[in-house]
Amino acid sequence: MQCAPLPAALPSRNLPAPLPPPRPSRRLPPRHRPSLTPPAPPSPSRLSPTHALALPPRLFPPPPKQSLASTPFPSAPEAIPRPRPFRTRLPVRLLAAGFVVLALLGYSSYSAPRLHSPWLQAGRQPGMHATVRMAGAADFPADEAAAPRLASSQAAAVRCAHAVQSSAEWARLRCGPPPPPQVLQLNGEWGERRRRGRRARPAERARNASALRAAEESGDGGGAMDCAEMKARHGVLVGTSWGTLPLAGQARWAELDCDTRDPSREAARALEREYLANYTARHAAALAARPAARRLGGGGGVGASVPTVAVCVCTTSRRTNASRLEQLALFSIMLPSLRDSLMPAAAPRRTARRFGFRLYILFDAGDAFYDDGARESEVRAWLADELVAPLARRRVRLEATLLRFENEMRKPGPAFNFMMAAAFEDGADYLYRVNDDTKFVGAWADVAVDTLLGFDPPNVGVVGPVCPEGNTLIMTHDLVHRTHLHIFEHYYPPIFSDWWMDDWISHVYGSARTAKGPFRVRHFFGHQGTRYEVDQAHASRLEAEIESGRAQIARWLAREGPRASARQRSAASAGNAEGDP
């Protein structure tokens, strides 16, 4: 008996229907899209009919409705490709790299303050410049003699810690001498920053070499010789750059105190010692020689109808190439802002009736720009047209004069003392010392005078504006009553010829008689820069001068305080009554 033959194809109704293909993805292109179809099972054309029937239905999908002989041989299953990573565009990558660079730069610049701030807050270091933060009476101990001279506030530490990264900024903020050797060992940032400074110019290298020869000729084979050798060999610029001096040499430099033993400055120090020996006589002779054309008022300002406020400013064209008035900060910044601050639009209306104003502008004899007859006439004409006349039209009284001073030391200290004494001699009641790159911001006369009148006794103290530039821990501009020159022989101690004058006056009166603001100024010290050399050795005299000044104030108060209180209160009330509408 013969068996029936097998059918050519299996009936499709007995097998499950195939699954539909997956939907294509919209995120990846077709060539990157992975295949979600399972691999094909072995083709039934390669098997015998018996074997095909023995396979489970789940692993053997139904073939198409055609003969086994006509079924094509399938290709090998395609490998599943991996999705390629997401590609960012080039600008995005550049932006990310820029953020990384900025973050690294910010971290490197902030690393030094974190290391130096404990040193700045730790307490007084030997020979370090003393600083007291300006604040209210609550920030000072009851015993002012026990008040620390070194700023302990976080603000002071942060400012000086940031300044330690640059010797020029450290010197500008007057944070004191360079860090001691133990600090240099903790953090090399000071040395690294200064070592990356500019190299000495040929003229500076020549001066360094001459200083070395001078040290050799002086016979001092110790500290002065070592300092001169380091300066000449490594191109050190005192207060500016370490040159190529390594950290060990910087520690040696600080140990020898080479900043104050610079042989190249010995001639200047000898001139200073000789000048200070005859300071009082020179000062009196300069005041007596002042011609009548450079004087204002009739003197004896106590009997004037209204109090007089003298605005005093020193100016110089040194280290500038100015050929016109507008190229100097005095005529482009300071004087226009002074005029605007006295206008009724900025100042209260009663200011014009309450005060009279005087302007003293001092320049050095021999100044290449100012010390010329034609130039002086031009300056006077500018003052009359741009300052005096506009204020007179608004009923504000202002007089102006020019002072010529024989400044042998080429330092601001002697010029300041001469200028303030000239205003005192002319009878000014209030003296306001400012800089030629100062910009007045808003009204200031009423609030400053009222603050001085509020002291006990009245007018014994100092006030200053809020200035966001420079060292904010002290007053860089100061206003006092003429009583200041009854207490002290000179406006500033003569020893401070360049810096530390404003440090002294910020601290000598103590917290009870010192006030800052609320009137404001801006200080554009970058307009013409520093125009004189700074002797860092003067910092060691600051504490002694502050203590001496406080002793003079105490003696004057014990002798004249009660009478001054009664006299000045009556004069102040009379002056306010005349100034009120």
TrEMBL record:
Residues 1-16, 45-57, 563-574 have a biased composition (Low complexity). Coiled coil: none annotated. Residues 1-84, 191-222, 559-581 are annotated as: Disordered. Residues 24-34 have a biased composition (Basic residues). It comes from the Eukaryota. This is Hexosyltransferase.
